[in-house]
Amino acid sequence: MNKLVAGALPVVLLAVLIASFLQFGPLGLLKTAFPPVEAVAFEKVVLEDGRIIAYVMNDGPDEVTISQVMVNDAYNKFQATKSTLKRLEKTIVYIDYPWAETLPLSIKLVSSSGLTFEKEIAVATPTPVPDFRYITSFAMIGLYVGVIPVFLGLLWLPFLRNLSRKWYDFFLSLTVGLLVFLLIDAFEGSLELSSEMPQALQGVGIITIGFFLPYLALLAISRRDSASAVKKTVAGHTLKLSYMIALGIGLHNMGEGLAIGSAFSIGEITLGSLLIAGFMLHNLTEGIAIVAPITKHKSENVLRHLLVLGLIAGGPTIIGAWIGGFAFSQFWSLLFLSIGVGAIFYVIVEVLKYMGNGPQTTLFTPTNVAGFLAGLLIMYATGLLVS
Question: Strands (DSSP E) along the chain, which ranges?
Fold first, then answer.
């Protein structure tokens, strides 16, 4: 108990010091001499027939009061679950407004100090509700985008099995190229989403936690499994590698589903359709990455493993489409994207370690370098459709 008190004492004293400084120190005096710092962030806007529902949060350090609401530059009546918000507090603003479908919409919240906080919707369209029609529609989108293309990509297994060791290493290197491209793409998406979310949620912190969480967890699991004699066999290791690749790709594909679902939920039908076409071709190449490590794996249950691998890699696309379409959350979207980045990074490291234990004395043979560059070029070419 004495050790516990000794360990907690510095923390308690520091908390008292900070509280005293904020209340009586220079910062407390300065705050009385300057106007409050107000910031309001829109988390989500739902459009119903004749009504707008805005979910907002106090993103600033000071208390803020929502006093007026403007829609398309005209003041409008509103109701809020809470008008005065302390730091990080949330409220729901209900606005009765006959918005017109397919037309742009501008929503402004006016604080008691006169500051305005705006949310623009390029194309107004009813927000999807989780009924049978939309649930099945988003499920079909995830099926077309993630599940079917990944399973089609797995059909390359017989072709890859007939390759020599040199070309086997080529396709392993191609796998690394595919994964590196996915890694950078997911990381860029994480940074972009982080810049759009409330600053108080500390997007960079979410990215850091999300990255290290799967990487360290998978690393710990791998170290534990290495103690088993079964896991030390080449066949067991390559199969586990394929499952790790499928998991990393699945987390990435969940991010793709989020992007498509959220695009349709805000009325960006053209964008959503382009994303579907682009991701279908994009995900076809991911099948190579999944099956490349097990081309030399001989097992009676190979079809069962391929079924599970395809579901792990493609199934999360459906879940992502549901989340993006019905309950899009910047926090959870960013966390899932960051987890995907960490998982993919772990897989890249494991594939390189596996290749380094092969008969080649170096990873940087002309064949391996060509395979790596081919993987990058394939993902770039298929990514052009997404752009």
Answer: 40-48, 51-58, 64-71, 74-76, 78-80, 84-85, 90-96, 105-111, 116-121
In whole angstroms, what is the distance from residue 132 CA to residue 53 CA? Answer: 23
Q: Whole-model pTM?
A: 0.71
d(CA 186, CA 251): 10
Beta partners for 340? none
Class (C level, CATH) for 40-121:
mainly beta
Question: Which residue intervals of the chain bear CATH 2.60.40?
Answer: 40-121
pLDDT per residue of the chain (387 residues) written in tens, 0 to 9: 577 777 777 878 777 777 766 565 555 555 555 566 788 989 888 888 899 999 999 988 889 999 999 999 899 999 999 999 998 899 999 999 999 888 889 999 999 988 999 998 877 888 877 888 888 988 988 888 888 888 988 888 888 888 787 887 888 888 888 888 888 888 888 888 888 788 878 888 999 998 998 888 877 776 665 544 444 455 566 788 888 888 888 887 887 788 778 777 665 555 555 566 666 766 777 787 888 888 766 666 788 888 999 999 999 989 988 888 887 677 877 888 888 888 888 888 878 887 777 655 567 788 889 999 998 888 888 767 655
- The packing angle between helices 2-24 and 26-33, to 10°, is 30
**CA distances in angstroms from 373 to 89, 173, 177, 246, 354, listed in the order given:** 48, 8, 6, 21, 19
Q: Return left, alpha or beta for 40; rule: phi > 0 is left, psi -120 to 50 is alpha, else beta.
A: beta
